[in-house]
Structure formats: C-alpha cells, structure tokens
Structure to design on (187 residues):
C-alpha cells in the first residue's frame, strides 16, 4: 500500500500519522476450575524458553476476545470462551514489535475442550499445569506471567469482581456502529 499526500497548511506542522504506531498482542489464561490447572505453552522459535500463556497478534478489525480464542485454538487445539481482561502492558522499543509500540492484553478464559493438539510449527511444549506450580516457578516464567498468575490467584480467592475488566457493548455516535467499552464491573 502506498500513500501520496501534500500537506497544504504550511503555517503548522504536518499532523498526518506516519503509519500504525502500535501492535496489539493478546494472550489467554485458560483456567480449569475443577483441576486448578492453567494452559501453558513454550514457543518453538523464541529466544526465551519460558512457560507462558498461548497468544499472538490481533488481526485487523478483530476483537480482543476473538483474538484470544483464535490464538488459543491455533496454538493448542483447545476451544475456549472469553470471560474478561485481567491486565494489559504497554511497552516501547520491544525488539519483536516491528518498530512499533506494543500493547499486550492478558485475558481470562474458560476451556470448552481439554485435549491438547499443539501447533508443532510454533509450539515446542504445551500442557495443563497447576496454577500454584506455575506461580512458584520463578525461573521458567517471565515477570508478566508471574504477576498475572498472582492476579488470577487473587481473583480465585477474593472473587473476580476485584480483578476482571469486562466489556459493555455500546451504540456508537456513528450511525449503525457499535463498540465495546472495557471497564471494571459497576456495583
């Protein structure tokens, strides 16, 4: 795609955006309540050998929930249902972000299936692991995985109304359009 333009107002700086400024990554904490296990993967083509939650980049015009469910299915073969957003991270100058700032969203999902069939092209290992075991394993997980495990444990103990960020579908001011407004539950 190409863009040819000429900024005509020479009395002020050209305010045309240069290009997309951010990429959106989404991962999912798929939690099995009955076994207290979480779905984890190890990437095949990563410089890091950490246990992490399955996920990837959001496609153009793809909702956060749809990205989480799609990426989990593609990487692990597990069908899941989006419940909420637990946390998100904004990071600049991340080497894997194609020169863009990176927004990474961690979602909470419930599994609809349980038999793992991982993508052998992307994933070297995939399994159900005890949430406590994952949280206690500070050498094989990244700081963001450790912190989101802590958030999940807090939600399990005190209720997810204290941690969940859910959405309300709203009517847009633009005729015929809707959007999702994410926020903590109202009392």
């Amino acid at each position: 795609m190409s863009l040819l333009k000429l900024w005509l107002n020479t009395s002020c700086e050209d305010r045309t955006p240069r290009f997309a400024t951010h990429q959106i990554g989404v991962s999912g904490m798929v939690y099995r309540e009955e076994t207290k296990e979480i779905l984890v993967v190890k990437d095949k083509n990563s410089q890091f050998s950490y246990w992490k939650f399955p996920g990837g980049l959001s496609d153009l015009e793809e909702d956060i929930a749809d990205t989480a469910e799609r990426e989990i299915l593609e990487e692990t073969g597990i069908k899941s249902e989006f419940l909420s957003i637990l946390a998100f991270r904004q990071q600049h100058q991340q080497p894997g972000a194609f020169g863009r700032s990176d927004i990474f969203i961690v979602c909470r999902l419930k599994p609809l299936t349980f038999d793992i069939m991982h993508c052998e092209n992307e994933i070297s290992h995939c399994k159900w692991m005890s949430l406590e075991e994952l949280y206690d394993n500070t050498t094989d997980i990244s700081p963001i995985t450790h912190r989101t495990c802590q958030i999940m444990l807090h939600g399990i103990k005190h209720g997810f109304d204290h941690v969940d960020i859910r959405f309300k579908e709203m009517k847009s001011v633009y005729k015929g359009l809707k959007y999702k407004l994410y926020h903590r539950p109202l009392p």
In short: The first helix runs from residue 64 to 76. Residues 22-183 form a domain with the Nucleoside Triphosphate Pyrophosphohydrolase fold (CATH 3.90.79.10). The chain has one domain: 22-183.
